[in-house]
Amino acid sequence: AMARHAGPRLPLIVKNLLPSLSSIFDSQRVTTTAFFAQLLSSNVVNDLILMETMMDSMTGRQKDTCTLVRMLALRGLGNIASGAPEKVRKHGAKLLASMVNGMDDKDDPHNLVALEAMSSLSKLLDHLEQRDIQSMLLHIAIRIRPFFDSEQPDLRRSSIVLFGNLTKFSEGHGEVFLEQILNGLVTLLLHLQDPRPEVVKACKFALRMCGPNMGCEGLCEMFLNHLREDRSLHYGEFMNNVCKHLMQSYPEMLNRLISTNLFYFKSSWVDIRAAAPMFIGFLVLHVDEDHCQQVDLDPLISGE
Asked: Disulfide: which of 46, 153, 165, 248 matches 196 by Cβ 3.0-4.6 Å?
């Protein structure tokens, strides 16, 4: 409301609030950071030449002792994508470094800062220069991978959406990024059976984005046709066909795909526990005899 109706008064308000960012009281730092963070989503801060000051203020809060302040600072930096997208290009490297630092936050037991970093980075990606993101692409892809199986559905959803968005920047990293896709493929396919609809939606999006990078036209078409948001999925039939394409294009991956699935035999989510042995069954069904000899049957039979 203040951005819309009290624009001319904002520079003085911002000036008077700036000292509160260094207050000894957490509550004052939280309130001021929250106000600045939300204000950054409005273009008025650009018109009033407040953008640089406020962005520097948010960047300066990244080492704050209060988790909530660090989280809100990242939210503010992410909001620049809607308030002043052209500034994202100008300060791309700095903003990207802030998001990566947020994902690596060591004093964040509930991963609130990491969650905000992933959500904000997804907002910023469309406005970042290719060269800025490419230098950090693999680090981010590897860093977010453990969140795919988080007990917190928001972390699963945000990390998977971010992974899908990262594929847009994989040009020039073809082979190396393909490795990251193959590392996450089993997890993304199994989480199509996730108990949370928002995570299933995120997996559909990520797999559609990954398809063109996989060098298998049949698989790419399957992901685009069967994983549309508005389309219900016959999971067993879909996985049967996915495994057929996988074994035609990547037969040497059989052991790796099986061992990743074995990990999910102990999943706390019953539908994912059920999907993993079915996935293995379809892989073995469609692999040719030569590659079938490579399968180590002991862990498969014991289910460990």
From this structure: 153
Structural domain range at position 292: 156-303
Contact partners, residue 19, CB within 8 Å, separation at least 6: none
- Note every long-range contact of 3-11, with CB atoms under 8 Å and residues 24 or more positions apart, other chains counting: 3/39, 3/42, 3/44, 3/45, 4/42, 4/44, 7/44, 7/47, 7/48, 8/48, 10/39, 10/44, 10/45, 10/48, 10/50, 11/48, 11/50
Contacts (Cβ under 8 Å, ≥6 apart) of 178: 170, 213, 214, 215
pLDDT digits (tens, 9 = 90+) for 224-240: 999 988 888 999 999 99
Q: Are residues 197 and 84 in the same domain?
A: no
Is residue 142 one of the residues assigned to a domain? no
Mark whether 121 and 160 lie in a shared domain. no
134 within a domain of the structure (yes/no) = no
Residues in CB range of 230: below 8 A, 6 or more apart: none
CATH number at residue 25: 1.25.10.10
Single pTM value for the model: 0.90
pLDDT grade for 172, boundaries at 50, 70 and 90: low
Q: In the listed set 110, 128, 146, which residue is the last one of a domain according to the structure?
A: 128
Choose between 235 and 136: higher pLDDT.
235
Q: Same domain for 2 and 84?
A: yes
Averaged pLDDT of the chain:
90
Domain count, the chain: 2
